[in-house]
Amino acid sequence: MNAAPPEPVAVTLPARGPGDRLSGLFWRHPKLLLGLLLAPPLLWLGVVYLGSLAALLLQSFYYIDEFSGVVVPEFTLKTYAELFRAQNLDIILRTVLMAAAVTLGCAVIGFPVAYFAARYAKGAWKAAFYLGVLLPLWSSYLVKVYAWKLILAKEGIITWAAEGTGTSAILNAVLSLPGIGGNSLSTSYIGTWVVFVYVWLPYMILPMQAALERVPVSLLEASADLGATRAQTFRTVILPLALPGVIAGSIFTFSLTLGDYIIPQIVGTSARFIGLAVYQFQGTAGNIPLAAAFAVVPIVIMLVYLTIAKRQGAFDVL
Amino acid sequence: MTAAVEFRNVSRHFGPVRAVDGVDLSIAEGSFFAMLGPSGSGKTTCLRLISGFESPTGGEIRIFGENSGSVPPNRRNVNTVFQDYALFPHMNVRDNVAYGLMVKGVDRVRRHARAEELLALVKLDGYGERKPGQLSGGQRQRVALARALVNEPRVLLLDEPLGALDLKLREAMQDELKALQQRLRITFVFVTHDQGEALSMADQVAVFSEGRVAQVGTPAEVYGRPRTRFVADFVGSSNVLPPEMTQRLGGPARWSSLRPEAMRLIPPEGAALSGQVTALRYLGAGTRVVVRTGGAEIGVLVPAGTAVPEPGASVGLGFDRAALHLMDEA
To answer: Which CB contacts under 8 angstroms, 24+ apart, belong to B7-10?
Structure first.
């Protein structure tokens, strides 16, 4: 039997429609696609975000007329000088100390969790980890903070548990610590710190876990093989390699604490933090320039913090 | 003389998986010992049992006569060159090499001086300031080697040390490793799936199969007198012949092996054994001719410069009776 000669297969397949033609266009001009994808977010970032930030910055160089309460649009550093008045410096110092304490707390509590998740958790355990870390983020921030107010209150579960287990003395000793203690946990700096650590913890754990996951097990084995104890391996191998993750997490916890104005209002002493100051100056007081100057403070602190971190080589491994 | 490393009926089971199953081995001090086998044959687990990253579920491992059962890896005077080199990416080459001394508390000046000596030993003088990321694969391998030698280990373990290198570099490193071992007189134990590497470097080879040791011997013994079909097949490209074929070649009714290079092609007329050429593979230094005869396929190595038959041609097979190796086991 004589088979018909096979149809020659086309070298170039025909375009199937506008989709094919469009992807052909993108193939010939790869930068076009990149430009189209990047334009909306860059516009958003550039105009909306950076634009408003610039407007804010501009406001901070104006001042408010003390008699009329009207903002005078003239360049001055007077508003910044106001930041250095004792009561305002107090606010800044209090906020920075709290942010540092919260960051440290998150790092210390979060590290073992992140380490476990990165090194040992597999399958269902990994899912449980993500669920456990992210679950608190699902519920409203306000609900969580009020829940903590109830937990920490004088009539709350902690006081009750301390009485039940006969550890009231410890609780009272903690509450009588000078400076950070108070009448009850919910009206002390300790309470504010606990709630801050709780709400920002996921933002610390996730970047640390991502960084730890990239450390190959063989590096830890090599360290032990060469004679290092576990503590030495932690200090000389794990920590330096996880540092970018810790720094990334601390950027979250630090800046979120610097800017928050709700938690210190609900839990803690009624002393003001930067966020609250910004909120009050731009709202009730109508002092937009001072609010703007206060808003610049966290930005400057973060820039200083990142510069120091970079100098210390925190990003060398990236 | 006590053996450098001794396995006494060692097993390492992971649940139902018997990664290592009843292994007895004795590695002589100062020898260059190869653990050869396909992936999953238990050779790497055996190496990790020596370094302490795995613990035996049965039997015991003695390192220079001492039972290593309860000794953690950081207290074993055994060092490892890891397959992925495992260099610390955040330290420069000098600090990597000096790491073993640093954790022991040796001061900076002394450990850096020692690191430089070792870098010179592996021909990387002047590379101390670089980061591992700036080195080529071959250079990283040398750094890993220097780092593993800094503590002057009694036994050096190498896990597929040349696996990630390209062919030319691999051959050069084989010679260098061998020379280094002979100079340092340290016991080297290395794991490989490359039989050429094992044969060319080792004094002793243990061939692993499914968690057990199939044969231990010098490279010549393992290559020339394989004990089992598996060894004959895995080491080299031997013809493994079933009992009936062995009988046709004039031997007893037992499994045997016949090296392709021990055979030659002769005219089919009057030959005791003849068949059809079914395939050719050009190897450069020769051509492997596959001949189908009596239901079996036999490979013959025809050296370069000799006439190679066309596929389909009838050929006779000639061989040395002495080359026919009878195996102990199927």
So the answer is: B7/B46, B7/B49, B7/B59, B7/B61, B8/B59, B8/B60, B8/B61, B8/B62, B9/B58, B9/B59, B9/B60, B10/B46, B10/B49, B10/B56, B10/B58, B10/B59, B10/B60, B10/B61
